Amino acid sequence: MKTVVFIGYGAMAQTVHRLLPQGVRLGGVVVPSAAVAEIKNKLDTSVEVVSAIAELQLEPDLVVEMAGQAGLKEHAGAVLERCWRLAVISVGALADADLLDSLQRVAEQHQAQIQLLPGAVAGMDGLRAARALGLEQVTYQGRKPPTGWKGSYAEQQVDLDTLTEATVFFTGTAREAAQLFPANANVAATIGLAGIGMDATQVQLIADPAVQRNTHTIYAKGDFGEMTVQMKGIALADNPKTSTLAALSIVRAIEQINQVWVI
Ligand SMILES: NC(=O)C1=CN([C@@H]2O[C@H](COP(=O)(O)OP(=O)(O)OC[C@H]3O[C@@H](n4cnc5c(N)ncnc54)[C@H](O)[C@@H]3O)[C@@H](O)[C@H]2O)C=CC1
Ligand SMILES: O=C([O-])CC(=O)C(=O)O
């Protein structure tokens, strides 16, 4: 039996928990101290529910961050210092160059690796491979229904409640997008890191009352040729910002702990 630890236990983590592959158990959950009692009530007593990595008694096979950008910042260093494997979904936190550098240093010091998960998008394998021969251009367009942008900085740009047509409320770099929209544009940072970097990746974000799905469109051009990938993702029932595929990309990473054929 393999053991995983979740950092965060929100909509995504609860979905992943329900879909845990056979032979893997949830051993621990790290949440803010104010949430510990509530989460303990939701979980079997065998699961350690704590507010800091240092409080965990177990030895996990994989730690998965699903706690938002602040959660990654708070706990990732402690995971790497213990040489535990870390998979990250709030990739947008790495738009903070100081955090990226400091995690890289800790990981190198402890010979640890950090797995950046593709989350709500597909095509990161092709984009990363294409980079080896040089990429000229990478763009990302994120289009969600207005409800998917509620509670974000978009509310300061457009009136999401009265929108009648597709409205572009952000144009800029992947780094800016990931920082301005921490719960909505992590994929922009992932695409940046996989391809030509966060500052060279151009991003457009759109609230569109005509769509029901979270629609991510990636375009890349380089010496490999051209690539267009579009994902029309169904959001999680408990969080309209988060695409179901983001949770499934974590299930995939957990499955890989036990797999002989890794695909
Ligand atoms: N890469 C991708 O494709 C995507 C990434 N995300 C990221 O995943 C995160 C989680 O998504 P959801 O579960 O839908 O959000 P959610 O808001 O439902 O859950 C967040 C959870 O993190 C916990 N948390 C907050 N701060 C924490 C901290 N400092 N330490 C430990 N736990 C903390 C909360 O208590 C809650 O349990 C999002 O905030 C976003 O950053 C979300 C969607 C797609
Ligand atoms: O789940 C999605 O559609 C994408 C998302 O929120 C993010 O990248 O933060």
UniProtKB/TrEMBL annotation:
Top EC class of this enzyme: oxidoreductase
Catalytic activity field: L-aspartate + NADP(+) + H2O = oxaloacetate + NH4(+) + NADPH + H(+); L-aspartate + NAD(+) + H2O = oxaloacetate + NH4(+) + NADH + H(+)
NADP among keywords: yes
Database matches in Gene3D superfamilies: Dihydrodipicolinate Reductase, domain 2, NAD(P)-binding Rossmann-like Domain
GO molecular function list: aspartate dehydrogenase [NAD(P)+] activity
EC number: 1.4.1.21
PANTHER family tied to this protein: ASPARTATE DEHYDROGENASE DOMAIN-CONTAINING PROTEIN, L-ASPARTATE DEHYDROGENASE-RELATED
Function: Specifically catalyzes the NAD or NADP-dependent dehydrogenation of L-aspartate to iminoaspartate.
Family: Belongs to the L-aspartate dehydrogenase family.
Protein name per UniProt: L-aspartate dehydrogenase
Species of the source: Paenalcaligenes hominis
Taxonomic lineage from the root: Bacteria, Pseudomonadati, Pseudomonadota, Betaproteobacteria, Burkholderiales
Gene that produces this protein: nadX
